[in-house]
Amino acid sequence: MKIVVLGLRGFPDIQGGVETHCEQLFTRVAARGHEVVVLGRKPYMNATFHEYKGVRLVAIACPRHKSLEAFLHTFVGVLRARAFKPDILHLHAIGPALFTPLARLLGMKVVSTNHGPDYERAKWGMLARAILRAGETMGSRCSNAVIAISPPIAEHLRQAFGCSPAVIPNGVLPRTPASGQESLEQYGLQAGRYLLAVGRLVPEKGIHDLMDAYVQAALPGWKLVIVGEADHADAYSIGLKQKAASIPGVVLTGFLTGEALAQIYSHAGVFVLPSYHEGLPIVLLEAMSYGLRVLASDIPPNRQVSLPDEQFFAPGDVAAAAERIKSFSARDFSEELRQRQIAYVTRNFDWNQVTDQTIAVYDAVLANSTVTT
Q1: Residues 277, 189 within the same domain
Q2: Per-residue pLDDT tens for 156-182?
Q3: 202 and 157 share a domain?
Q4: Which among 39, 40, 146, 41 is positioned nearest to 83, based on CA atoms?
């Protein structure tokens, strides 16, 4: 079958959970013998890539603008998608799903994946939130099939729209910890003696809280490493970088990938995810797959992984986060517990299973059958 994919910035090696999801999923769909075309956003895509692991990459021009780029890119993308005569148009995230009715009007069968209620993100104003809610509504009511990446999202869609989404989670790759430490040397880090957070520099990721918790924890000889960048320079990201510069021991690496990121993950002492909003966080799964001690904010998406209560803290509760950080930084993590954690994420969040389940949704849509959980 031919699948056209829309709603992401692009890949490979482009920051974002949706982008990581699509890179891992659709390269596997292509490897199963299906034709996949990804319509990405030109400002983010590497001009040297026109095909990647069997996936055709098409860059569509759009303004690099926080409020307009996804809207305009998806509108043009739906029109471009029709020219490819796809068997399936797969829309990712609720913003792009706003154009589901247009795609259906043009005669395309649409699968939409809901990666979470993006209207809860602090960066959006009232108008943007209203548009995102409309996108969730259109995707839920007008798609031929809906996929939710976690049970809480699926339950919300059932209650709000009466639809029956297929629950297909994010996946994680089996990891072999990197032995090299060149990246640690570059940033002045000591193996096992730094906290790690990975994510975009946006308010809902809670990095500002983590910086405050790091100061309160006052771990002798430990640093705080933050891997990630802002998509758009704004008051929050600029202020966050200024705050980081004022705190001894805080290291901002910017966006990393490949071996550099693998080394930073592999040698971290504790991974912390302090976010207020997630869909199903790939970075948390990745940290667990490396066998790291992990701490996370107590929100429903983060609870989808099997972790004890003591590894959670209330989002925004800096004192609780600092207490958890102090406790876990001093605690041994036995090899037995490490391997049990790795086995858990490898077994339950496997990209090959995700691919099988997604293709099954496509097959059901083409067969005009009902797709349920």
Answers
A1: yes
A2: 999 999 999 999 999 999 888 899 999
A3: no
A4: 39
